[in-house]
Structure formats: structure tokens, C-alpha cells
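Sharing a chain and its predicted structure for anyone who wants a worked example. Both blocks are below, sequence first, C-alpha cells second.
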Amino acid sequence: MAAFNTLDWTRLDVWAIVSMDGIAVVEPKHQEACLAWLRTHGHAVSTIDFLQGIGPAVIAFGELFRWKEQFGYALGPESRILDALRDGFEFDVQPGRGVVLELMNAGVAYNENPSWFAGLLSIAREHSRVQLALGARFFTLLILSPCSALVGTAYEKVSVPSPFRTAARHGDPFSGHDETRPPE
């Protein structure tokens, strides 16, 4: 199943996921109308607020991702290891449906620890790509004023990848593949 029936570029979800790699920004004055639109168009919204800093937000992530159920321990305010967050970053997104992670007061988190916040955006971007490949819609929504220092801030560098490889015999990643059958 495709994540979208058509690519209507006037829709926030299409624009956010396809054009903006899963990260979108809406001005505070449009927040309530945006959330209403998202819900009307089949998106569940989860909100994390950074107003009190990264520590309390990390606890909120732990609750959102049912950290104790997944890993057997609670995610504490000092738990800022991005690889661990990536491991637990999971939303139940049904094919053809959508989930939005709304981040409030993102500037507070960015000012406290720019590299941690950039890592969070990178994880969210990756999750958006994975969900799109699975036929579901996920993106992160930042509520920011147009003059926010975060607007235009780089958070991830992309480069040309290494050649495709597998553990196939003789180093040929395509040996043994039947060209007439689709991949399983």
C-alpha cells in the first residue's frame, strides 16, 4: 500500500515527508489549525515539549516509547545517548495512516545542546524514510516562528554512499539473484 494516493504538494504531510525529509515547521499562530487538519486527515499527534529542557523531554520520550516495557528500565533525564534513543524510537504507524511527532519549544533544546537536538532530528528523519518505505506516513513538526534561530540550521550532512555490498560469495552482491523474480 502506498503512503499517499496522490502527491498533492499543497498538503502539509506530502510536503513534509517527500520534500522536507520528514521535518516540517509551522508558525505558532497556525498550530491549532494545523493540528486540527492533521487529525482530520488521519494523523495521530504525539507532543514533546522542551520548555523545561532536554531532561524532562527525555523522560517524556521514555513514556511515549514505553521504554520500561521495551528495555526493562525507565529512561531518566540524564539518558541522552542518541543511539539508545534511536533503538527505542518507534511509533505504531499503520500503512496508509500517519503519525506526527510535534516538538514544542525546540529552541530551548537546541540552545541547551545543539548536537543532541541535531541528532534527534536525524533520528526522526530516518524514521520518516523508513515509514514511507513501509507505506505509512510519519513526520516531525516543529512549532517555530519564522525568525527562530533554528530555521535554516543544518542538522545533517548527506554524502554520496559507498558502493552497494552484501555478504555474497566472491564479492558479487548480485550473484544468485534470479532477475525474473521480484525480491522477497
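Comments welcome. The first strand starts at residue 23 and ends at 26.
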